[in-house]
Amino acid sequence: MATIEAPPPLPALEVERASSAWKLLLRSKLATLGGVIFLCILVIAAAAPLLIPSSVVRSVRFGARLQPPDAEHWFGTDDFGRDLFSMVLLAAHLDLRTALGVVGAAIIIGTALGAAAGLVRGLDEPLMRMTDIFLSIPSLVLAMAIASVLGRSVGNLAIALIFVSWPIYCRLMRGQVLSEKEKPYVKALRTLGVGHVRMIVRHIIPNTVFPVIARAPTDVGLILITLAALSYIGFGPGPYVPEWGSLVAAGQAYIFQAPWLVIFPGLAIFLTSLSLNLLGDWARDVFDPRRRS
Amino acid sequence: MCSIRDGGAEELMAAATSGPAVLEVEDLCVELGIRETWVQALNDVSLTIRRGEVLGLVGESGSGKSLTALSVSRLLPENARVLSGSIRLMGEDVLAKSEPELNLMRARTLALVFQNPTSYLNPVLTVGEQIAEIFELNPALLGEAPGGGPFARRRRRRLAWRKSVDYLGLVNIPDPERIVTQYPFQLSGGMQQRVVIAMALARQPSLIIADEITTALDVTIQAQILTLLSDLRRTVGMTLLLITHDLGIVAQLADRVAVMYSGSIVECSDVTSLFRDAKHPYSRALLETVPTIQGSQSGFRPIPGAVPALTDPPSGCRFHPRCAYVFDPCARLRPLPIATGPRDTVSCHRYGVTPGE
Amino acid sequence: MSEGLALETRQLTKHFHVRRGIFGRGAAHVKAVDGVDLAVRRGQTVGLVGESGCGKTTLASLVLKLLEPTSGHVYVDGRDVASLTRGLLKEFRKTVQMVFQDPHGSLDPRQTVLSALREPLLTLGGATSGVKARDRAVAALGLVGLDLEILTRLPHELSGGQRQRVVIARALAVAPRIVILDEPTASLDVSVQAQILSLLADLKTRQGLTYLLISHNLVVTRSMSDVVAVMYLGKIVEIAESSTLFERPLHPYSSALISAIPVPDPHTRRMAALAKGDVPSPVRIPAGCRYHPRCQYAEDVCREHEPPLTPVETGRSVACHFPGVAARVSPDDRLTTPGSVLSS
Questions:
Q1: In this structure, what CATH number is given to the domain that contains residue A119?
Q2: What is the ipTM of this complex?
Q3: C35-59: per-residue pLDDT in tens?
Q4: Chain C residues lying within 8 Å of B256, measured CB to CB
Q5: Which member of A37, A68, A202, B129 lies 3.0 to 4.6 Å from B125 by CB, making a disulfide possible if both were Cys?
């Protein structure tokens, strides 16, 4: 057997590989733009409740209602006389927190169940029938039904949206796991004594989870829009909970008198979901396993 | 299987070598875009094929042989571009052609057969329909003029169908009347490849390019296809650019051989000379490294090193790091082709002074 | 009887059930491996050749306990592997290793070389600490002639030859005694093939290994094997010493396989297609002798009765009613039979 020498320094190549993902981001101007915009929105959303007192939401001043944007009220005031700028920022916090939470929960539930379906033959059928049921009902209708049963609050809407989103991740993960299981390296590893648990945890999951993660940014955008849509229809929280969708719905009645009531929240939704879509494209490029070969 | 080498075949070969050139490639340079940089994938590739000749293009992965075929047919991928050089097919400049002219070229003059026949056959059309389509698009092949009323069209369709059956018989498909109604998925790999060959022949092209057409097939099926090609050579007289990594196939089918390494043709000569007395060190090493069925079981003679990556080629002669005969100029200068016969060349500093040294 | 036999199979059979028919009845069998007797002596290289559908890959899976046989036995070092449990199973996995074809697919695309080499040491034991495992991984790398700097690379950053060496190193890391080589040079360039074959031959001598070489490439098989077994549709149709088989094949299929190889010599244009028709699928196995539909010499008895694998000389067996009938066709002769038999 050969003599053993001191182990060589490792980090160099690791750093190079990680930085190639960043390089790809920076090289794609659109992705960079998306990233920058989303980062700004995220920072603003995170900072909003710290900078703006929540009393703004209840400070009804009918004397100052429907005022156009000026130096004091950057976005103007709404029909309750509240500063629209503050409302939009507070709504940003709520909306982003909810959307990220929904997608996060849906991913965790969906991938766990999907992996189980792919790995345990007995669980495959029942789980797939369950996802079939969920997927056969239009998502918006299902969310509305759940929300109407549970009550009109953002929290309940979030629960409804999680119900609606997990089946897709479940199916995706299951498909990935099923195909990964058949790959030659899995057979090879079995002959090397790798047991089931180790195989799943150390080999199959890491190789299958990335396409799922690649979808996440785009899905956050979609959930955001769905949330806004539900609020717009009237399933959202009342006028004392700032949410972009309900802001747009409230402003709709005054669209000719005070168009800013619709423009600014609408713009916020648009920018957020656009930047998330751009980031989503980048994520798909980076995390697509095929890029590796 | 009688030997082709004796008798009248020599005369046929002599006639062929003095015939007009079907394909003339001169100093072709092609670049590939790999990971944000352009790399030189083909370096001054030159070759000539006369009518009735079979040229074997031999090389390993990364040698550029498939890229050459794609360049000739102008089917290069998005990330490839022709830098310089000329390609003349039947005297016409291929690089100057417009898209409609290229379509015409691929429909009439040039036929391509690739490695995986399943991918190249339309899965929703029967085999007969696919061959008949060639005749319907090219009524001249039936000896008919285009246009005419529904009567003429129906007659052409019947003729085309008849011809499809004939061509299936030409490629030795058993029971062609039945096969002509089958879909590609109902046929085996070997049969599918025969169908693709039939489609190539149906065009009556001036040149057929076959790229690794037997690599994906089982050994006994490969033998059938090679025997078929050999028979067709004698009966139909094909002009063939045969691309392969298998020296055995080249020895059995080709008249002339061009050996490629890392984007250049390192040697080009007639097949007997190559096998008897290969000049380029790579050709020689290749012939020695390939174990043969008659060869002894003693020792392997591997070529040290590995095929260089296109993104980081060695300086000078690309083969020099692995060459047993390397000397001073090899790492500095890229060797240019030196004539060793009326149509033969070798690109190696050992065979003469490269101009500019 | 089993002394000196590193590996033995007796009447090894694997049938896959393909459900057809309306209520799951009328089930068809795919007889992938159908009663195979194989014996590999310690220190030998036995080559197993056949085309697609012959069952050689299934046989390898059975020997490695990746599949359970429908019937028959596999013996490693005289012990039946069917009855192996936990601890002995680990020993078995250390004894019998496999070098898979497609080195690219055999490696986890997200594992570095070091991680891939360490894994068997951690799972099959023999390395109690990470450091010890690393040392042995490095040693295995040295065996196959690769540099230390390979350790941090991912599979897609390696060349085909390097990947194949890593797969070999991984198999050798646990110090096996029997190695099954499944098409070890199939996806490699010609110039690299000789390197890998040379390495494998060298390792066999140095490490005292026993090889079962599975290939469709007769030339590679001939150059590496002591004994060659020819498989067709799940059965062994001929088994003989390597040189004897290639000089004088007795079964028409062996002849066909050997003659099918294009000879790299323009003066012997002896490429003959002796097998008619297509490579059959194991779903529909012909009655009588399995090879008869493709055989030029088939007679009535061939269509009705399946010939058993019968010893004809010492160390040589054939399953044919007319062994040697194709002996007129040998690799060194120039064929005089006119024409070519292409289709049935």
A1: 1.10.3720.10
A2: 0.84
A3: 999 999 999 999 999 998 889 999 9
A4: none
A5: B129
